[in-house]
Amino acid sequence: MITSFHPPQRTLMGPGPSDVHPRVLSAMARPTIGHLDPAFIDMMDEIKKLLQYALRTDNPLTMPISAPGSAGMEACFVNLVEPGDKVIVCQNGVFGGRMKENVERFGGEALMVQDTWGTPVSIEKVRALMEAHDGIKALAFVHAETSTGVRSDAQALCRLARDYGCLTIVDAVTSLGGIELEVDQWGIDAIYSGTQKCLSAPPGISPVSFSERALEKASNRRTRVPSWFLDTNLVMGYWGGGQKRAYHHTAPVNALYGLHEALVMLQEEGIEHAWKRHALHHEALKAGLETLGLSFTVTADARLPQLNSVQVPEGVDEAQIRARLLENYNLEIGAGLGELAGKVWRIGLMGSSCTRRHVMLCIDALENTLSEAGVSLPSGAAAAAADVYYSAEA
Ligand SMILES: *Cc1c(COP(=O)(O)O)cnc(C)c1O
Predict the structure, then answer these.
(1) Which of 74, 94, 174 to mutate to test the pocket of ligand 1 (most atoms within 8 A of CB)?
(2) Which CATH architecture has domain 22-267?
(3) What rounded mean pLDDT belongs to the chain?
């Protein structure tokens, strides 16, 4: 007979999901109530307010889509791209390629700006393409490319899009909660994120937000939105209607309790403090990893603190190291994705997985595991290098 499932106790330091805080897990274990219950509707309104806080926006259309980050991506493209629309899509990793897919599947024409994986989106290339084409409707790019660990200059890209009168569609799945992100101040028009990266809530929900300009485009379409589930006009009847909420779908009630709690925790900490925390622990981890002889894929000026992509040393079996970390330390780190598969490890410091304990565990476990695999390393030096960043704190 099959019995209850009890997952092993892992420490999650990959590209997401990140460790979910016990407060969030216990919030999710509270009794399920009806999704049209007045108490639930009040909680939905609080989630919207908390998301506005996290995204730094006053956009009334700010809500969580009841599906993972990929659905948030699709919600943005399906509402804002019409057949024949020209959209500039920037690709410098895996996720830009998915944006291209979205544009094309909804009948748009994707004008590609390609940059080497591990480097930021080139502002100059985007500008050149905008100069060369008339009638570009939108600029789409990934703020924090999780496949490589690179940060692009979202503020400059949004300013450029404004100068040329086109909308921006921004992937902030990994950036939200981990690095500075200013939806209103930067003039982002459509943004989607995920819950399982720096928000450290369970996976399966995608916060999205649309500006006034994006809403105008969505409500003045020539053609009907080709998705029923993701049509913002319909979803907003559910998320925007206050106590007069219209049934659209059944929200994932307990998962939303979890998101609510994770956002409350973020508000308690303060979003700016969360950004600083990610930067601090990244510095400590970096010092340790470099002492272990590991080099970063991305140059320091464009590195994401929450996603540390490091080269696998020559002659080391990367999958075997990850397997041993999991087996001996219950520690999960990420493998390379796409072009970088087999070449890098991706070490996440996201949300609840961004603490001193995580940094020290990772360095210690990697040092021991690499030593066992025959890499010669000075014992304890990496931990000491990381610890320097904490001595000022204590
Ligand atoms: C994780 C991720 C996604 C996809 O999110 P899912 O919740 O896995 O669907 C999209 N974009 C980026 C940059 C991501 O890191």
Answers:
(1) 174
(2) 3-Layer(aba) Sandwich (3.40)
(3) 96
